[in-house]
Design a protein that fits this description.
The protein is of the alpha/beta class. The protein is built from nine helices and four strands.
Amino acid sequence: MLDYDYRADFLASRGFVVFQPNYRGSHGFGKKFRQQGWGALGIKKQLSDIVDGTKYMKRQSYIDKSRCYVLGGSWGGYLSLALLTFEKNLFNAGVVLFGPSDLVAMLKTFPEKSKANSFLDKLQYGDINNPGHIEQLKQLSPLFHLKKLQVPTLVVHFKDDKVVEFEQTAELMRECRKLQLKNIHFIIKLGKHGFDSIAAESEFYDKFVDFFNYAAVK
């Protein structure tokens, strides 16, 4: 889908090549394409689409292989954290914005907050009353596989987030302390889901550029 994204423009103005894939499950390409990203198998397809596109960019020498980063917010935050956790040697660092790290816990908090886990949401993510679905979602949840996370990672979350509960990141922080992980960093501030202004978002993106530069020399 062609659309202007000021975030991509910001990063490009700082010298980054920006790759924004329309992975399976994205809007704008019809019902069949959307449904291909549903369920645990669909989530795996989403991740593989991003992986395949990134590898293609590397093969074509469109990007510096030693400075390849991933950044995403909300569901994109989940995808970013999952890619950093499960894909060894693909990315050199990443930024995760208010995304879930535990898909099972995410679904359990949805019903009261957004009326999720309805019939449609069970198809899109999985049914938390189905033990098989729970196990599949745990396998796809970075929280339970953090020992695999080897590259510098910056996680940003706001305490009043009612879409992706802040508890997602709080639990991530507790698990990182337990495992004594040194490569994952956190910025926690007051706020809701997303940035409250373009100016505030711009300030954060300056921090992300600094973080990527920091990761490049580690």
